Amino acid sequence: MERCKAFLKRKNIEISAKRYGIDALGAMAQGLFCSLLIGTIIKTLGQQLHLDFLVEMGGFASAMSAPAMAIAIGYALQAPPLVLFSLAAVGQAANAMGGAGGPLAVLFLAIIAAEVGKAVSKETKIDILVTPAVTIFTGVALSYLIAPPIGAAANAFGTLINQTTLLQPFWMGIAVSVLVGVALTLPISSAAICHTLGLAGLAGGAAVAGCCAQMVGFAVMSFRENRWGGLVSQGLGTSMLQMPNIVRNPRIWIPPTLASAITGPIATCLFRLEMNGDPVNAGMGTCGLCGQIGIWTGWLAPSENAVAKVGAAAVSPTAFHWIGLLLVCFILPAVLSWVFCTVLRKIGWIGEGDLVLP
């Protein structure tokens, strides 16, 4: 046992929830952002501006999402170069064989292949042959065995959430909004979760509402401490910046979470706000305005995922659509979080300095 522990330590193989559930998942989201998400944005701009080269550029970027995710996961696991580069093939295989739930298959199989590759790395004199071969063989062989059931399970669970939200928009609007919003602020990836589950339609809209409530909420309620820099870094960056403060005083999390519990059902029941762009946008909130771009692209040209999951169709957005988008994503989160925070400040649950960014 001691020899095994020593070997794992020497190979930098750390079997832990943090390494796999936070580091790897967070990196996977970055890989998605740098391929599928930015590709979708570029492609949409090209379509609206009638610039074919932008459409092609966006298509090239989006097509590389699986390798980008796998390589990003390997980078988070601190894989050596030969392992890291070999993960491109693993990601492509896992995503293709995982079907609609491919991203979850990529997460699992890229982790396994990376750790096996790290274990054999530089253990032989022909490392340049052995390490890539073992990494690719492990990842692709396992893809044949477990990617389809992993993908099917993720697809089924995502479909269940989407359909349940259609049937129970009020309660599911609250649940999805709160849970995805909390995931956004935690050091895990709400974007990767939404992409993996394929959230679309009303469920995607509720997810966007929850993420916006956290980001805009923290940005506005902490304005007196962090001023304009904090407003931008949290409102257009990430509410995850408040995690150290949440650990010190969990009560500061109450205002934006209550706001998400209100804006979620408003999005699903009143405005019927649907997020039918790529599902990764559902977990982005106001980060780079990706959530809003996803809603907009979904109006104009629904993604394949949205068509398959909720039967989405293109719409011509009216003033009602835009009012709903502005209220759910910006105005209501700001007002509600500020009101709740003011109350908590008066009763002493939130004190001076509790929201100062590190």
Model description:
There is one protein chain. The protein is mostly helical and 358 residues long. The protein has two domains: 155 residues, no CATH class; 179 residues, no CATH class. It is built from 16 helices and no strands. Helix 5 packs antiparallel against helix 6, helix 5 runs parallel beside helix 7 and helix 8 runs antiparallel to helix 13.
Compact description:
The protein is mainly alpha-helical and 358 residues long. 77% of the residues lie in helices and 0% in strands.
SSE arrangement:
Elements: H1 2-10, H2 17-49, H3 52-63, H4 65-76, H5 81-98, H6 102-120, H7 127-167, H8 169-185, H9 190-197, H10 201-221, H11 223-237, H12 243-248, H13 254-270, H14 290-300, H15 304-310, H16 319-346
Helix pairs in contact: 2-3, 2-4, 4-5, 4-6, 5-6, 5-7, 6-7, 7-8, 7-10, 8-9, 8-10, 8-13, 10-11, 10-13, 10-16, 13-16
Which descriptors would you attach to this protein?
358 residues; mainly alpha; 2 domains; globular
Structural class: mainly alpha
Order of helices and strands: HHHHHHHHHHHHHHHH
| Low-pLDDT segments | none
Number of helices: 16
Give the helix level as a range of percent.
over 70%
Largest sheet: none
